[in-house]
Amino acid sequence: MFFDRPESGEVAILVHISIASESEREDPTEFEELALSAGAMPVAYITGSRKKPTPDYFIGVGKLEEIAAAVQAHQAELVLFNHALSPSQERNLEAQLECRVLDRTGLILDIFAQRASSHEGKLQVELAQLSHSRTRLKRGWTHLDRQKGGIGLRGAGETQLELDQRMIDQRIKSINKSLGKVRSQRKQGRRSRQRAELPTISLVGYTNAGKSSLFNRITQADNYVADKLFATLDSTLRRIDLPNYGAALLADTVGFISHLPHELVEAFRATLEETAAADLLLHIIDAANESRQDFIGEVNSVLTRIGADSARQLQVMNKIDLIPGQEPEIQRDESGTPVRVWVSAKTGAGLPLLYTAISELLAGALVEATLRLDPDQARLRSQLYTRNFIEAEQIDEAGHYLLSLRLPRQDLDRILQQSGIVILKSKQSVSSEPVEPRTLKTA
């Protein structure tokens, strides 16, 4: 029902009205990108301004006539509004324009319906669509009345509208039950990762900021990447091995957008819980976009809505290849903690710095140490190599392994306590020189 799509793009009229009473206005350029991402073929962009929306049509009579003329002139099949319309406004507009009308929320839901590929993703999108459409059912049936007088004239006790609403409510209940199982499975997975001491790093950011490109670059995965809004919908987990730290899980997530529909936040709560439970959030930002500060605010707003605002966050300024003269770098706060890294997922510039910053934030303070291992301690040596702690190695005349390490302080303390090996020297690591990961593998 919700996933049937026409084979070709639909001719569409775009409408953007600046409302003086609105404190936060929608971006007309972003709206056009949304329409293109949905597969529409915009043939006219009608703009205007009002002090406040009208209750019947959202727009005034003059603007309504202008849109109707454009629909007739271009034989448009669809009119898209860059605003949230009430159910009655949608119905009134469709009656006057004699074509389908979608508001911004309906357009975003349609894009999500196209992008959903996994069973869980489709369930989440259908739940959001059902919640949105429930208030937009039309009274297209009149033969089933609530009450009729006389023998043989009594109806079923419900109007068709009420039957449709009950069917939708039953389907919503069924989907919520299925998603509840998904939520339980995710909790079980998080408990397993915690027992295995595998931290989770979650990529978050505004849509089309380059999250999937960065994810693919780090993990050598082949997730779908496109220069369009909401190219990624289904979340993906991959294991990576970080230098001077060890194994971690990297999660790619759905992108956020200004005024993300409430229905989507609720429907994707099972997926977004992964973000809220992450040990570290990589906030991917399109550094070349002039509106990046607004986008940062929108992402932080959604993180607050899902309870992830208190999670540790590292800003990743992506697409520096589009900024002349911008070099890769780590920016730190007064205490020396990494807060921002400038990279390019497209070219790979700055990724070693990103690995260094992630390792520091997950591990805490790093120390440099030189250890001496006996020949019969090869197992510990292998474990140190597995955790990517060894920077260099030598063998002395007596056959001992001399290992130069860079690792978290707590790991060094645990090794010394458990093995009783000899430490030749150690010092606090203050260098921010990038270290290439020796292995980056997928699980």
Brief characterization of the structure:
This protein is of the alpha/beta class and 443 residues long.
Explain this structure to me?
With about 450 residues, this protein is of the alpha/beta class. About 40% of the residues lie in helices and about 20% in strands. It has 13 helices and 15 strands. It has helices spanning about 30-35, 60-75, 85-95, 105-115, 120-135, 160-195, 210-220, 260-265, 270-275, 290-305, 350-365, 380-385, 410-420, and strands at about 10-20, 40-50, 80, 100, 200-205, 235-240, 245-250, 280-285, 315-320, 330, 340, 365-375, 390-395, 400-410, 420-430. Helix 3 links the parallel strand 3 and strand 4. The relative contact order is 0.09.
CATH topology of the largest domain: Rossmann fold
Structural class of the secondary structure composition? alpha/beta
The CATH homologous superfamily of the largest domain is called P-loop containing nucleotide triphosphate hydrolases
Number of domains: 4
> What helical percentage do the residues reach?
25-40%
CATH architecture of the largest domain: 3-Layer(aba) Sandwich
**Helix/strand order:** EHEHEHEHHHEHEEHHEHEEEHEHEEHE
Assembly type of the shown chains?
A: single chain
Number of helices: 13
Mean pLDDT: 77
> What Rg do the Cα atoms give?
28 Å
Overall body shape: elongated
CATH first level of the largest domain: which class?
Alpha Beta
Q: Residue ranges: pLDDT <50 for 5 or more in a row?
A: 1-8, 139-145, 149-154, 430-443
Q: Within the largest sheet, what's the order of strands?
A: 6-7-5-8-9-11-10
- What composes the largest sheet? 7 strands, mixed
The counted number of beta strands is 15
Question: What portion of residues belong to β-strands?
Answer: 15-25%
